[in-house]
Every structure is written in C-alpha cells, then in structure tokens.
Amino acid sequence: MIPRLIQKQLLRLWASYPVVTITGPRQSGKTTLARATFPDLPYVNLESPDLRALADNDARAFLQAYPAPVIFDEIQRVPQLLSYIQTIVDESGKNGQYLLTGSHQPQLNAGISQSLAGRTGLLRLLPLSIQELHMAGITLDRDEYLFKGFMPRAYSTALEPHTLYSDYFATYVDKDVRQIANLNNLSAFETFIKLLAGRCGQLLNLNSLANDVGVSSPTIAAWLSVLEASFIIFRLPCYYENFGKRLLKSQKLYFTEIGLVAWLLGIREATQVARDPLFGGLFENMVVLEALKARYNAGREPDLYFFRDSAGTEVDLLFRKSPDQLIPTEIKGAMTWNKDFAANIRKLRKLSPKFTGGFVVYGGDMTPVSDDVQFINFKDAAQIVD
To answer: What pTM was estimated for this model as a whole?
Structure first.
C-alpha cells in the first residue's frame, strides 16, 4: 500500500468520534486505507449478498453478529443500519466504534444527516496525489501522469491504463449509476460522460450539452448530480463579490480522475497527450485536483474557486487563505517559463486587496518570483493551498 496522507486525519477522528465515515470514488483506496490503519478490526463487506441480506432483514441480529469496533465497507448498500448504529453509540458513549466506507453521497448524506449528525467524523478520499506517489518513490513526467492517472490500482498492478479505465467505466455504469438513478437510456448517459471529458476545465453549459446529447437541460442537470454524487466529477464555483463589474456566476467542470478523462478522450499512449487539442484542459484538471486532494487530505473543506468577469479577466484557481485573503493561481501546461503567465493575476489584484500574492503552476522547472507571484512546477501544486 502506498501510504496515504489522509491517514493522520483518520486516526485523529477515530479518537474523537464514535463513528468515522470515509467517502470517495470507487477504487480510490478507501477499503485499503481502513484495513491498513486498523488491521485488527473485523471487516465486513456489505457488497456481499448474504451479509447484505442479513443486514436488510434483521439489522439487530447483524449488529450483534458483528459488534463494535468494526469496519463496515460500502455502508450505502444498507443505509438503514445507520439508525441502529446511532442507538448503539449513544448508549456506549465511546469513541472509535464504527469505521464506515461508502462510494455514494446521497444515501450516506441522508443517513448521516438523519442519524449520525454530530456522531461521525467525515473524510473524503480521492485517488493518489503526486505528493503521495513522490513519497513512495514514484515520479513520472507530466504526460505520463496525465495518461496513467492516479488510481491506486494503476500502481499496484500491471494493468495497462486503457484496460484499467475501461473496466472502471463499465463497473461504474453497471453498479453505481443503476443504484443512484433510474436511467431509461444508458447509452445516452455514456455519451454524455464522454462529451463531458471534452469539456474538462471549461464552463458548464447545460443547454449546449443537452443539444449535443439530445436530451433536455433538466436531464443534463440530473445526470451531473449523479456524477457528482458518485465522485466522478467536481464542480468548481466562480468566486463572486461586487467589484463593480459583472461577474459570471457559473461553474467549471473537472473529473476526479484524470486517467479516466484521457481514456474517455481516446488517448492510448502517453506520447499522444501533448498533441491532444484538449491538453490544456487535461493539465488544468490535474492541477486543480491536486489542490482539492491536498485540502481533503488535511481534513478541510475545499475553499477553492475560479474567477471570471465579463471584461475577460479570468484566473484559473482561487484559494481562500483567510476570510479577507484569496490567493490567485494560473495554470499553464507549457514547460517554458514566461512572465506573462501571471498577467491576469496582476489584473485581478487591482480589483480588491483581498487578492494577494499568487502562483503560476506550469510544466517547467524554473521557480522565480516575479511581482510577488511564485512560479512552481506542477508536482508541487499542493503547496498553493497550504
């Protein structure tokens, strides 16, 4: 197992709450993290039909058969267990009783808000970060990261990326989509996901997507919610404040696994990455997700935004350092340093004193500071949200 940075937060929450819940996309390493951190705890996988049937039919008997402390994997498969767990932890008054993992937010969120509010610590585990791979002695070049992605299985097995992500996509559609939503047209949904891959790093336009897929805008909105609920996509909000200009209150779309995007775009070799017309979006997606992983691994909320106004001023990423301080970041896939990469950061800082400092994350190795803007290599992208 490649050590996960979030493990520190898991141990802290386990000592502070009776229940800890780890959510995240399929195959991001939730089960491995739970079992490696607490190897002596009994492990129960609720994907198992017989165990799930017992939990469904007689929750009390199930919980007596598997008493705390225990790990329950894929808890969203039997959300009614959460009410019984609430009763048990309230009576025991002890911390570190139930470690739950799950891939789907809707069922877990509903159960947690109804039964476990105030009783569970929450962690969101995304695929591996560049920092975690580096700590494990694994370093790739820019295009190899974009092609291979960050799923733990990409580094623990000999599977080729196209096989890994083909199987991942098929499993996701067959299991997660069918569980979350009652879709009448799976073929159109699959087409929709592939079209989204071509729009990573771009503003979301529901009407455009609806026209391209051949469905209604409300359907597109519902499908986006399905993808977000199962941690396939992440929506980055536009930062809004009245600076005397009309700001575009929209969202930008990113995938939580860049290797899946490359596969959806038909990229089958690392040498194809830089030549792909969507290379800029791929690189931006990877950097934004590195920032998001760093926030989640520290047990924090994202506090990430982008900026865009009607006058054309746009900055790829903003990080809220404090209530009155936002750090702007531009993302450039180029490997050659250029001071003009920071031009929009300088424009943005003139709008409000809230915008201070700044970073340019790019593919090169030169790390100068120009006009209080730090240029850094993409492998160090996690430091922009420190």
So the answer is: 0.94
Reported as half-sphere exposure (CB side, CA atoms, 13 A), residue 205 has a value of 12
Domains 7-124 and 136-280 share a fold: no
User: Regarding the domain delimited by 7-124, which CATH topology (the fold level of the hierarchy) does it fall under?
Assistant: Rossmann fold (3.40.50)
Q: Which residue has the tokens 């098929």?
A: 170
pLDDT reported for residue 172? 84
Q: Which long-range contacts (CB under 8 A, 24 or more apart) does 215-218 make?
A: 215/185, 215/188
- Hey, where are the domains in the chain? 7-124, 136-280, 306-385
pLDDT winner (highest mean) among 165-179, 287-301, 305-319: 287-301
Between the alpha carbon of residue 379 and those of residues 2, 47, 286, 383, the distances in Å are 17, 36, 10, 10
Tens digits of residue pLDDT in 179-190: 676 677 888 899
pLDDT for residue 244 is more than 60: no
| pLDDT level of residue 243 (50, 70, 90 thresholds) | low
SS3 state at 104: coil
**Which residues, including other chains, have CB under 8 Å from residue 283's CB and lie 6 or more apart?**
142, 146, 331, 332, 333, 363, 378
**Whole-angstrom Cα distance, residue 295 to residue 54?**
38
Output the CATH code of domain 136-280.
Answer: 1.10.10.10
Cβ–Cβ contacts within 10 Å for residue 346, how many?
16
pLDDT in tens, 104-153: 666 666 667 677 888 999 999 999 999 999 999 999 999 999 999 999 99
